Amino acid sequence: MTIALDRDADLRRRLDQLVTRYPQKRAALIPALHLVQDKCGWLHDDAVRFVAAYFDTTPADVLAVITFYDMFHRAPKGTYEIAVCRNLACKERGADAVVKGLERALGCREGETSADGLATLRTFECLGGCTEAPLVAVNWRYFRNVDTAKADAIVANLRAGKAPIQEPRPEEPTTPKNEIYLTRRMRDANGAVDLATYRKSGGYETMTKALGMERDAIIEVVKQSGLRGRGGAGFSTGMKWSFMPKEPKKPHYLAVNADESEPGTCKDRLLMERDPHSLLEGMVIACYAIRAVAGYIYIRGEYLYAAECLERAIEEARAGGLIGPTSSHKIDLHVHRGAGAYICGEETALMESLEGKRGHPRPKPPFPAQSGLWKSPTTVNNVETICNIPFIVDKGAAWFRTMGNEKSPGNLLYSVAGNVKKPGIFELPLGTTARTLIDLAGGMVDGFQLIGINPGGASSGFLPPSKLDVALDHDTLKAEGSMLGTGAITVVDQKFGMVEAVACFAKFFEHETCGQCGPCREGCAWASRIVERFLHGEGTTEDLDVLSDLLDNSVGKTICVFPEALAGPLRLGVKHFRPEFEKLVKGSPTAAAPATSPAANF
Amino acid sequence: MNLHLNGHEVESSGSVLDVCSKAGVAVPTLCFDARTSVGGHCRACMVQVDGRMVAACSTPARAGTRIETDTEELRQYRRDLAELVASEADAVGRAGELLAQCGADGTRYPKLDRSGTTDASHPYLRIDLSRCVHCRLCVRACAELAGQYVFAMTGRGADSAIGWGGSAFAATECVSCGACASACPSGAITDVDRLAPKTPDERVVTTTCGYCGVGCGLDVRVDHETIRAIDGAAGEPNHGHLCVKGRYAHTFVRHPDRLTTPLVRDGDRLVPASWDEAYARIAREFARLRGHVAVLSSARCTNEENYLAQKWARTALATNDVDCCARVCHAPSAAGLRGMLGAGAATNSYADVDRADLLFVVGSNTTASHPVVGQRVLRAVMERRARLVVIDPRRTELAAAADVHLALRPGTNVPLLQSIAHVIVAEELVDTDFVAARTEGFDELRDALRAWSPEATESVTGVDARLVRRAARSYATAAAPMQMHGLGVTEHHQGTETVRLLCNLALLVGAIGHEGVGVNPLRGQNNVQGAADMGCQPDLLTGYAPVADERVRERIAAVWGSPLPGTAGRTLPRIYDAIEHGDVRGLFILGEDVVQTDPEADRVRERLSELECFVVCEIFRSATSELAHVVLPGASFLEKDGTFTNGERRVRRVRQVLPPPGDARPDWRILLELMAATGAPQPFTSPESIWDEVRRVAPAFDRASYAAIDAAGLQWPVTASAPHGSALLHRSTFATAGEGKARFAIVEFVPSPNVVTRETPLTLVTGRVLEHYNSGSMTRRTRNAELVEADLLEIHPDDARPRGIVEGAAVRVTSASGAGHFVARVTSDVQPGVVFASFHFLESATNELTSGVVDRVTDCPEYKVTPVQVARA
After folding, report:
1. Distance between A59 CA and the closest CA of chain B, angstroms
2. CA B477 to CA B571: how far, in whole Å?
3. Run of H or E including B96
4. Of all helices (H) and strands (E), which one includes residue B643?
5. In terms of CA atoms, which chain A residue is nearest residue B136?
6. Which of A16, B454, B651, B868 is most buried per CB count within 10 Å?
7. Ranges in chain A, pLDDT < 50
8. Peptide bond into B538 cis (omega under 30)
9. β-pairing, B540-541 with B46-49?
10. Do B382 and B143 form a contact (C-beta atoms < 8 A)?
11. Which residues of A touch B43 (CB under 8 A)?
12. Contacts of B168 in chain A (CB under 8 A)
C-alpha cells in the first residue's frame, strides 16, 4: 500500500498544492489526512508512515493527531460511513429509533460495519443540524428529519448504488417582520447566493469602500457599533481587533471560527451554505483592518457541504480578482477542514489544530493577538460575527445600534430546536425572549410539554419555564447564571426528562474534553458517570454534593474554560430541576430499573 | 521587587513555582521537570495569587502580589484532583506518593478498573500505562532532552494514552537514553534498574562517566557492591541527561569475565600469580631492557594514572617512548589547534551549542559517538530552529536533520574545506576587522585559495558546488556559527592539515574567541584530552611542555627529582616499527586493546609477539592481553578515584563507587607499586596527592584543586587569573608566540595513497555505533549487546545489487591488509562506492582491513579510507 501511495502522482500533486496554503507545511497535516483517508478508506499503518514521511515526522506524531479527531479511522470501514447524531435535539426527536432502524436495515450494530461492507454505522456527537433533527450523515452528506422509514430508504439507495447527495434545506429561514440583513440575500435569492447574485445586490462594494478607509477607522466603527462575538463568549469585536499590533513585525492572520460544534447550534452552517460571499467579504475587511495577510476559515470537518460551498465561492472570488494574489489587496482566504473535535472551537485549540496538531488549548498569556497562528499576531472571529462586518461598515454603527439593546446591539441568528412544530433559525434583534421564539417555531408539538430550555448551546445553563420571558441577551442571561452562548434554544419536554438532557450534555463533554488538564479530563468523565447513575436508578443525594464539589474544583482551574462549559448545564440542571434528580434517587419508587445489557435492547 | 509568599517577603523572579522552590516551599507537581519546558497542564501546582487560583509553574511571579500555597481551599482542591487522578492511574513513585499525601483515599472517586498497555520488549525500558498520570513528561523529555520523537499522546480526553506509533516498543526509533524513565513520575515508564525499590543502605556517589569524551556527570545509586541505577547529574555538561551507555551499560563491572588476579605467562598459557610475583618479573625484565621499553598509556584511565605512566616512562624507564590512544584519534586536532591557535584543545564549550545559531559539524556522527552532545545539537535544530551544516560522507542522524549536508567522497576534506574558504573570500564574507586585528597571512591565503572554487573541486569531492556555496554563506553569515569535528577530520592522511583548514574558516569569519562560536574537536574517549594534557606523548611533557626545551626539562626534573631524556620519543606506529627493528623490546600497555583497535591488526599482533617482555594492565582479557607476558588486573572507572578531562577541557572528579573485584587494584596504585619496584618510589598516598603534583608541574591546573573542582568540574586553564576555569579560550589574543596572532594555514591537497583499484573498488569508512564503545569489551558485557548484536556493513543498494547482497546477508570484506566478516545493511545512507563498518566486535575483524597509511604530521592512522572489495560470504 505504501508503494501505491508513494507512486500516486495525483495524491502527491494535491498534497503539494495543499501545503502552499500555509506558511508552514505542517499545517496541511489534517487536510492531508483527509485526502489520504479518502484514498485508502482508513488510515492504516502504511498510510500513517506515508504521511509521516511526507511531513518529515514520526508515525507516533501522526498517530497522536489522527487519534485526537473523531473523523479519522484506524480500522477498516464500509464503503459508506453512516453517522447518526446522538445529541439533545436529535435524541429528543427519535435518534435512538433511527439508530435501531439503521441497525436493522444494515444487519449490524452501532459501531460495526455491515457484513456486505456497505456501511459502517456509528453515532456521533452533535452534527450541527439541530433544527433538522434527527440528522443522519452518510459520508458527511446530511439527511434531515430522518425517521425509520427514511432510514430504510437511505440504506436501500446505498445498496442500489446511489451515492448520497446532501439534501438541500427546502424551507426559507423563518423571518418575522423585523429588519433583517444577515439572511436577506439568501431569502431574496431563494437559494444559495452565487457571486453574480451577490454582486448584483451590492456585494463586495463595502469591501471596496473599506479598502479606501484608514484601517483604524474601520476598527473604530466596529467598536462603536457594539458588535459582540457571536460564537458564544460575546466579547467586543472591535476591542479584540484593537489588540492587534499596529506596526506588523510578523505577518498577521485572521482565523474564522467555523467549528460550529456546540450542541443546539447550526446557524453558521446556514450562512456558509447559503451566502458564503458575505463571509468572504467580511473576512477581507477584517483582514485589512487588522493588517492580516491571509484569512483561514477553520470549518468543522463534518460540514463537508458547507466547506465545498466556501471553496466554490473562494474560487469565484479569486477568479474575479476580488481576493488572492490578483486582487488589489493581495489578501488570500482559505478553507481549512477540521476532523471532528469540539474543543477546536476554543480559539487557542483551533490554532493548534490549524497548525496540524492535536487540539490542545494553549495557556494564556500569550494571547492570540500577541502570539497566535505560527506565533504571529492572530484574531479569531466567529462566522456570524464576520458576516455582520460588511453591514456595519456599510451602514454605520448608529444603524447597527437601532437593533437589539444598548449592551447587545444588532440582530442574532437565534434558533429553536427540540419538539417544537417548526424548528428553525430566526434572525431577530438581540434581547428577544424565548417565549417569542418558541411561538415563532409554532409552539410545542402536540402531546409534548415544555419543562425547561437550554438557551444557548450545551455550555449554557438550563432554565425553567418560569424564565421564558427573560430577554435573551448577554448580560441578562449572565445574571440568571446562564449565558446567551450561540442563541440556540433547545426545548426539553416531559417525555424526555431533564435528567436525560443533563446526562446527554455530560456525556458530550466527557467525549469532547481534550484531556490535557487533570481536573477536566477526569472531572468530565466522573461528572458523566455520576449523572448516568440517576438514569440507572443508582444515584444518591450525596452524588449531587460530590457533583457540586467536582464542578467547584474544576471550574477556573484549567488551561481553558472547558470545565465552565461542563458546569453550565450541570449546575443549573441540578439547581432548577433538583426534584427531577431526586425522583430518580436509588430506592425511590419512581427510580428507573437498573440498567439492562445493551443486547437486551437490540 | 519583592512579593509575599505565605506571609513572608521574598524576592520575585521567574515563575511562581520558581519563587516557591527557591524559598523551600513545597508545591505539588506532576508534569514539572526542571530539565524540560513547562507543561502547565497537570494543574497540581495550583496556588493562590492575590486570592486567584493559578498554576504556579506557568504563572510569572509579579512583585507586590501575595502568594498562598496552603489554604483550606487549596487543600480541598488538591485532595479532589489527587483522588480524580488516582481513580484512573495506579501511580507509584513520586506521583504515587504525592497523590497519597494529598489525601486521595478513593472514597468519592474509587479506582477504575482501567487496564493499560504494558510493554517489555526493550532490554532496558519497561512500560505499564495503567500507572500513567498523563503528565506527558516522557513526550517532553524525549523531544527536549534527546531530540527524539518516540512518544506522543494519543486519543482524547479520559481515553488518551501515551503511544509510540507501533506495537512493540523495541521496534521504535528509541535511542535507549532513558530520559523518559528518568522523567516519568508515576512508574508508567521505567527501566530495569529503576523497578526495584530503594534499599536502606543505598547511597548516591557522583562521578564522571567513563565512556566517551562528553564526560557526563553520573549520580550512581549503589548498595554495597551493587550498582542499583545511574542517573544523570545536574549541571554541565549533561544537565541530568545520559545515553544508553552511561545510564545502562554498567553491569560489566561485576561480569564473571573480569580479571581478578595477576596472570603471568607459563609457556602457551597465562596462569594466575601473586602481585609480588608479577611485579618481580616486570622489574627484572624492564631493568634488563632499560632504554628499550616503551609505554602506552590509556585515555580510559584517570589524569593521575596517565601522569604516573609518563613519569614512570621518563624516570625509571628512561625513555620518551610514551604515547597514548590520542595518537589514533585526535592527535591531529591537538597538533593542528596548537599550531594555529596555541592551545591543542576545544576553543569553547558544549554549552555554546545552546547559544549557536548555526552548527557546523564535520566528520562526526555525533548522536552515535557523543550522544549527549549530539542530542544537544539535535535539540537546538529541532526545538530551537538553529541551522545545521553537516560534512560527512554518510547520511548520519544529524545529516538527515541538516539544512545543508555535504556528502563528500571519503578523503576529500581538504579540497572541500578549501572551496568553502574560497567562497567566503570570493564573495567577500570575510570578517575583515577580525582578520586585520587577530590574524596573519591573509594575503597569502587569498592567493592560495584562488584555484579552489567549488566548481573546480566538484569533480574531486563529488559535492554539488551550489551546496558548497550555500554552506559557506550559512557559516559566514550566521551570528554565532560553532564548529564541531570528529574523527572524520583527523583519521586521514591529511588529518592535521584538515584541522588547520577548519581553523582557517573560523578565523576568516571571526568565529572564535567569543561565546557560541569556535572550533571544537569532539574528543573520542572519556579522558583522551587528559592523557594528552598529562604528557603521554613522545614529544610533549605534562602541560604540553616540549621535551626538546631544556629549560622546561630542568624545571620538571626539579619537581620530579630525576633527570629526563632529552630527545623526543616514538609515536605508537613508530614504536611498532622499532619493535620490528629490535629497538623496542619491552612494552607496557595500560588499558588498551590495540589488536582490535589499531589498524593492520595482523601486523600489530606480529609485532607484539616479538616483544621480550610485554605487560598489559586490563579489566578483561583481550586479543592484546593474550599476547602478554604479564597481565595485571586493573579497575574500571567506577572502582577508583581521580579525575577525567572531557572534550571541552573540563576536569571532573571520578569517585570510587565500589571496590575493584577480587584481587584487582586501582591502576594508580598499580603504577605506584610498579614505580617502586623499578627503582622510582613515589611519595604519593592518594590520587589527590598525585594531582597536587600535576598542578605544580602544569600551570594550567594551578588552581584546579579537588576542592575547587568538586561540583561539576572546571575547564582549564584554572589559574589565579581564571580561578573558575575558562569556558572560552582566545578571547582577545591567541596563545601563539609573538603578538598572539593566528597565522592562516596554507595547505596543499596531497591525496591519500589509499586509492580504489579494480580489485578493491569500494572505499571502507570505519566508525562507531551508539550502543557500543570501541572494542566493545565493556558494552558487549551488558544488555546493550541485545540492542546491537554484530558489526554491520552499510552498503548502497547500487553496490549491493550486482554483488547479490541483500539486507541481513553475511558478507566478506577484503583489503590489501586482510579480511573481515559482517552482516550487510543495504542503505542509501552511504553513497555508492562507499561502505561503512563499525569495529566493536573482534569477530568481524574490521581492523584487519585498515591500512598502515597515517596522518602526514602526527602518525594518526587513516581509518576512514581503505580500498576494499565486498562479496557474499
Report:
1. 5
2. 41
3. helix B93-101
4. strand B642-645
5. A516
6. B651
7. 1-2, 595-602
8. no
9. unpaired
10. yes
11. 517-519, 557-558
12. none
Please give the residue of chain B at the shortest CA–CA distance from A510.
B157
**DSSP state letters, B720-746:** TTBTT--SS--SSS-SSSTTSPEEPP-
Element of type H or E holding A388: helix A383-395
For residue B269, CA distances in Å to B613, B614, B842 come to: 15, 14, 21
pLDDT at A300: 97
Q: How many CB atoms lie within 10 A of CB B503?
A: 25
Full-model pTM: 0.91
CB contact under 8 A, A67 and B134: no
Specify the pLDDT at position A602. Answer: 36
Residue of A522, A554, A557 to mutate, testing the B interface (most B Cβ within 10 Å of its Cβ) = A522
Give the C-alpha separation, B532 to B539, whole Å: 11
Cell of residue B339, nine digits: 599550531
* Mean pLDDT value across chain B: 94
Domains of chain A: 2-66 (1.10.10), 80-159 (3.40.30.10), 203-400 (3.40.50.11540), 411-493 (3.10.20.600), 498-601 (1.20.1440.230)
Q: For B221-239, how does the pLDDT look when each residue is reduced to its tens digit (9 = 90+)?
A: 999 999 999 999 999 999 9
Grid coordinates in use for B375? 542530542
Average confidence (pLDDT) over B276-304: 95
Q: What is the pLDDT confidence band of residue B773, given thresholds at 50, 70 and 90?
A: very high
- pLDDT, tens digit, for every residue of B651-709? 999 999 999 999 999 999 999 999 999 999 999 999 999 999 999 999 999 999 999 99
Collect all residues from B whose CB is shorter than 8 A from any CB in A. 30, 40-44, 46, 53, 55, 58, 76-77, 80-81, 84-85, 87-88, 108-109, 133-134, 136, 149-160, 163-166, 172-173
Per-residue pLDDT tens for B332-363? 999 999 999 999 999 999 999 999 999 999 99
Pick the closest to residue A592 from A535, A539, A543 (CA basis): A535
Closest to B481 measured CA to CA, from B382, B346, B357: B357
Beta bridge partners of A296: A255, A334
Nearest CA in chain A to B158: A521
Residues 6 or more apart from B132 whose CB is under 8 A from it?
Answer: B89, B91, B116, B161, B162, B186, B188
* CB contact (8 A) between residue A61 and residue B149: yes
The question of ipTM being above 0.95 is answered as: no
Closest CA to B175 of B220, B231, B125: B125
Distance CA B433, CA B23 (A): 48
CA distance B218 to B657: 11
Q: Which of A385, A437, A382, A443 is nearest to A411 (CA)?
A: A385
Contact A95, A86 (CB under 8 A): yes
Closest residue on chain A to B29 (Cα): A518
Each residue of B87-143: pLDDT tens digit? 999 999 999 999 999 998 888 998 887 778 899 999 999 999 999 999 999 999 999
> Are the beta carbons of A519 and B134 separated by less than 8 Å?
no
Residue written as grid cell 520558581: B18
Residues B563, B776: Cα–Cα separation, whole Å: 40
Are the beta carbons of A546 and B108 separated by less than 8 Å? yes
pLDDT confidence of residue B355: 96
Residue A591: per-residue pLDDT: 77
Q: To 10 degrees, what angle do helices B572-580 and B601-609 make?
A: 50
Distance CA B536, CA A573 (A): 82
Q: What residues of chain B lie within 8 A of the CB of A522, using their CB?
A: 84-85, 87-88, 109, 158
Of B80, B149, B164, Cβ closest to residue A549: B80
Q: Which residue has the cell 535544530?
A: B381
